[in-house]
Design brief:
This protein is 54% helix and 2% strand. By secondary structure, the protein is mainly alpha-helical. It has one domain. A two-stranded antiparallel sheet has the order 1-2. Strand 1 and strand 2 form a beta hairpin. Helix 1 crosses helix 12 and helix 2 runs antiparallel to helix 9. The chain is globular and about 60 Å long. The termini are close together. The model has no long low-confidence stretch (mean pLDDT 95).
């Protein structure tokens, strides 16, 4: 049995919404409008660090503030309003000031471009192998000199940008798990969201020999998956990272599946 066949079997079994929880991705399903979903998705992805229970609590706090239409909220509130509404917010290293700067930055992007998608596309070229150049442009437009702390990972600093790539996976891909909504960026340009689980998988599969999770590592692992699925190198990200995230699915189980008869 080939590696791709094994991965496809894992994907068929585990790439289901029933395996999403606990994951901040769950929040996106509540937003049928793409312009609201992209904002909720950015908030959920950028806060996706630390213990999952705290992540879910922090994301819920911000999204409750933004209401049923985050897009409308950010177009109609002043910076003073947002400062007031977020007073006392804290998620590990992210303060109310960092989160305020992010939401104010999103609001300014909406006024300049109309949507987060349009902003991202303004820096994207179909000639680019990956979304990384557009991601750097996107982060610069969001920050505009603001200090957002850990929320503003920039690939120009060689960061793996795990949470940025997670956001893009959610918004670009559309299947049983990823809700999609951004239709002009090809899935072929996506980069794996490199967390500890995907790092272990990429090492196990021989896609990288790197010793730490950097942008170089993420790109190497992405290239490995692209050899198997050129049109969608991030296809297996969700199902493979369930091993280690969900209590009943551990990395040793995945290792046994992948090592058998390869």
């Amino acid at each position: 049995m080939t590696l791709k066949h094994k991965l496809d079997l894992i994907h068929q079994e585990y790439n289901q919404r029933g395996f999403v929880s606990p994951d901040p991705l769950e929040f996106l399903y509540a937003y049928p409008q793409v312009r609201d979903r992209e904002i909720a998705g950015l908030v959920a992805a950028l806060l996706a660090y630390g213990r999952v229970a705290q992540i879910l609590k922090s994301v819920a706090r911000v999204l409750d503030l933004l209401g049923p239409s985050p897009h409308e909220y950010l177009l109609t509130r002043t910076e003073a309003d947002i400062v007031h509404d977020l007073k006392g917010f804290k998620h590990r290293f992210t303060t109310d000031g960092h989160m305020t700067d992010l939401l104010v930055g999103v609001g300014k992007v909406l006024h300049r471009f109309g949507s987060l998608e349009a902003c991202f596309l303004s820096g994207f070229s179909l000639e680019d192998e990956t979304v990384i150049p557009a991601m750097s442009h996107f982060i610069k437009e969001l920050t505009r000199g603001k200090k957002m702390g850990i929320l503003a990972a920039d690939p120009e600093r060689r960061s793996a940008c795990k949470r940025n790539n997670l956001f893009l996976r959610w918004m670009v891909r559309k299947d049983q798990v990823d809700p999609g909504g951004w239709g002009e960026i090809p899935s072929s340009a996506l980069v794996v969201p490199l967390d500890t689980h995907m790092f272990r998988v990429g090492t196990l599969l021989g896609f990288t020999l790197q010793k730490q999770a950097s942008l170089k590592t993420a790109l190497e692992i992405t290239r490995g998956f692209r050899e198997l699925v050129p049109s969608d190198p991030v296809k297996y990200d969700f199902c493979l990272t369930r091993f280690g995230i969900r209590g009943e699915m551990n990395h040793d189980d995945l290792k046994a599946i992948l090592s058998n008869d390869l």
